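Sat 14:20. Reprocessing the chain from the morning session after the first attempt stalled halfway. Input below, unchanged.
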Amino acid sequence: MPEGDSTTRRRIIEVAGAAGITALLAGCADEDPEEETPEEDEPAADEDEPEAENDDEEDEAAADDDEENDEDEEDEENDDEDEPIDPDQEILLEGTTDGWTGVEPEAIADEENPTLLLLEGESYEITWENGDGEEHNLEIRDDTYGVVDDYETDLMDEEGETETLEIDEVTDEMVQYLCSVHETEMVGEVAVEAQEDDENEDE
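Finished this time. Tokens:
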């Protein structure tokens, strides 16, 4: 065999051997367990996170609805308190040395020394009951601390007894009601609301 052919054949064998080794190494690399192992799935907890967020949002929305309902109820109660007392409805108070307690109408029920919102020019009856057997009376006062138009009842000290003060016409002079014996404890505000003229209402 000529020397040139021997050199060529040797070169081919060397190249083939190198290619075989390279292929073998590549095959081993492909069989590496670390590379073949598929990535593990993310924990299931991550998938539940959106649901937890939705639950939080629903709870917040429900809380907001509850707050709005509470505010609406408070607004309704405040609206009732801002309404003048109906002249046809008797005002009933209980008097003790601790103060006056509203009994009727419902807008002043259970309130201590409630504000009496009255309509100017209307007539009212205020009945009070002696709640403790101490001496009490009821007077309507103006801003100079004087009794308005003799609107006052006699002193009474019999527990359970009642007296009624009849107001013929409410005027803006009336600013408070009180017991002359316990002026600092048994005192409440009289608020007078003016009525609109019929002409203004027609306009």
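The helical segments are 3-30, 33-36, 44-82, 198-202.
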